[in-house]
Recover the amino acids of this structure.
């Protein structure tokens, strides 16, 4: 009788945890955006920069401590992580400019649609560069 080999996982624990942590950052980002844009009256681009910054910081702390467990060179890692986050802000800025300002699509919908695109972009770079 042969021993059964374990099936390979379709998704790694690291990716799953990154997605959960990313989800918490996305939730924080989007809720803060909604409050700033809809209730405080902050311009959608400024609201996006502030809300995304809060999400980036949340995700860095949680990924450093609970996921990648890398707390050495913390400043370098944070600066890299934040640079990737800034790239996400720029990508979202361009999407908001094109679809909300340019085409008149509701900024709330554009922001929501941009989140998974930006999340996948940032995961790929952060895994290799920020926490590699």
């Amino acid at each position: 009788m042969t021993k059964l080999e374990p099936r390979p996982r379709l998704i790694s624990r690291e990716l799953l945890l990154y997605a959960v942590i990313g989800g918490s950052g996305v939730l924080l980002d989007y809720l803060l955006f909604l409050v700033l844009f809809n209730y405080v009256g902050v311009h959608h681009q400024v609201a996006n920069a502030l809300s995304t910054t809060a999400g980036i910081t949340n995700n860095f702390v949680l990924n450093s401590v609970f996921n990648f467990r890398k707390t050495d060179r913390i400043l370098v890692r944070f600066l890299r992580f934040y640079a990737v986050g800034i790239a996400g802000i720029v990508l979202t800025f361009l999407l908001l400019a094109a679809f909300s300002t340019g085409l008149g699509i509701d900024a709330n919908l554009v922001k929501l649609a941009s989140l998974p695109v930006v999340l996948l972009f940032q995961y790929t770079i952060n895994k290799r560069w920020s926490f590699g």
In short: The mean pLDDT is 90. The CA atoms of residues 100 and 106 lie 6 Å apart. The chain has four helices and no strands.
